[in-house]
Design brief:
mainly alpha; 10 helices
């Protein structure tokens, strides 16, 4: 997450939000209304709306990091069969990875106060809207969409076709055998398959980690492309 927190955009956003929050506490006026996005003056509402979008995006990114580490661990005792467990986590990764494009698009919608409704603030409409004001930002959104396109296709398969036959998961499945088979094929044979399966899991973990890192790099590009416009907007409202 460091690559994102180092951007001037996030530093300015979080400092502004913290100033609002601190002022409420010092004035002893903090209440549930503070967390209402329609509470406060235009500057306060602007900062809170963008902050909320950042925290939603951050939650997705934290989840992606956590899901990736699952593939470095032993299969836990759950109601899942082992291959179902790896499949579930991979599909969850794909869904959350694709959703980062939705979240950064909705954040951009708030930064530029386009006023697009929740369901309409998708990457395509936001990119088209921002193009007239900040062509570099539009280009950065397009770059992220292009990078995530294969996973967006996979998300569609998960959501609409009942599951995803991922080549990565198939590779793990190639080396998965029920422990009862050790009685038929021998311990050495089974341990060799077990080792290869673990190697495939570690390989998948590394692949997912690189995907998340590249996604963060492209998200940082989008945030940095909006820095100047964001500063102008909140200074005008302040």
């Amino acid at each position: 997450m460091d690559i994102l927190y180092k951007t001037r955009f996030l530093q300015n956003l979080l400092i502004s939000y913290n100033e609002l929050h601190t002022a409420e506490i010092e004035n002893k006026t903090i209440s549930s209304n503070f967390y209402n996005l329609e509470y406060g003056n235009e500057f306060e509402k602007y900062i809170k709306r963008i902050s909320q979008r950042w925290w939603l995006l951050k939650d997705y990114l934290f989840s992606l990091d956590k899901i990736g580490t699952v593939f470095t661990r032993n299969f836990p005792v759950t109601d899942f069969e082992e291959m179902e467990w790896w499949q579930y986590n991979y599909e969850n990764f794909v869904l959350r990875l694709s959703a980062t494009l939705d979240q950064i698009s909705k954040l951009t919608n708030e930064v530029y106060s386009f006023g697009l409704k929740e369901k309409d603030a998708n990457w395509s409409s936001v990119r088209d809207k921002v193009k007239a004001q900040n062509s570099h930002c539009a280009e950065c959104i397009g770059n992220l969409q292009k990078y995530l396109e294969p996973y967006i296709v996979e998300r569609h398969i998960v959501a609409h076709c009942g599951g995803l036959a991922s080549t990565d998961i198939k590779q793990i499945d190639n080396y998965y055998f029920d422990k009862i088979e050790i009685h038929f094929f021998g311990k050495d044979w089974y341990e060799e398959k077990e080792l290869k399966r673990k190697e495939e899991l570690i390989k998948l973990n590394k692949k997912l980690s690189l995907i998340v890192l590249e996604t963060k790099v492209k998200l940082a590009d989008i945030l940095m492309s909006m820095e100047v416009d964001f500063e102008k907007s909140y200074l005008n409202l302040k």
